[in-house]
Design a protein that fits this description.
about 75% helix, mainly alpha, about 150 residues, elongated
Length: about 150
């Protein structure tokens, strides 16, 4: 009829010692073989994401500059949209790889995510890297140099 303090605490999801009650999913951790593919994909995602942040900022500035002048090229729009679609798609693949039931399925999703990230980020990173290299080369011995 009346609830004791212990039953009130237990109904709130805690045992008597104020520890959260453990569910069946918490008691059996996923094997390492199922976790490694998602770890690999997230490592590549973070690494390329950090490299792509300044590149993506430059792409957005170029898109807005071209739009303000009246038109945009299909190349620039294609590169920018591929980055906008590719990185969220890789995050979705990472979520799916984390919840895969088989090791083979997890690795397939992780490899697909790495391939998407590589395809999406190859051209922008190589173009920006080549332009930085060209600018750096001018200040080196034998380069054009700067007047002054």
């Amino acid at each position: 009829m009346f609830e004791t303090p212990v039953s009130i605490v237990r109904d709130a999801g805690f045992d008597v010692c104020r520890q959260p009650l453990r569910s069946a999913a918490m008691e059996t951790p996923r094997p390492l073989a199922l976790r490694v593919p998602s770890i690999v994909l997230m490592s590549v995602l973070v690494l390329l994401g950090l490299v792509m942040l300044p590149v993506f900022a430059l792409l957005l500035m170029a898109v807005f500059a071209r739009l303000s002048r009246g038109g945009i090229s299909n190349e620039l729009l294609g590169i920018t949209l591929s980055v906008l679609v590719g990185f969220p798609f890789a995050v979705v693949l990472w979520f799916r790889a984390r919840r895969a039931n088989t090791v083979r399925g997890a690795w397939i999703l992780a490899v697909l995510g790495v391939l998407v990230l590589g395809a999406v980020s190859y051209e922008p990173v190589s173009v920006v890297g080549a332009s930085f290299y060209d600018e750096w080369k001018e200040t080196q011995p034998g380069g054009r140099g700067y007047s002054g």
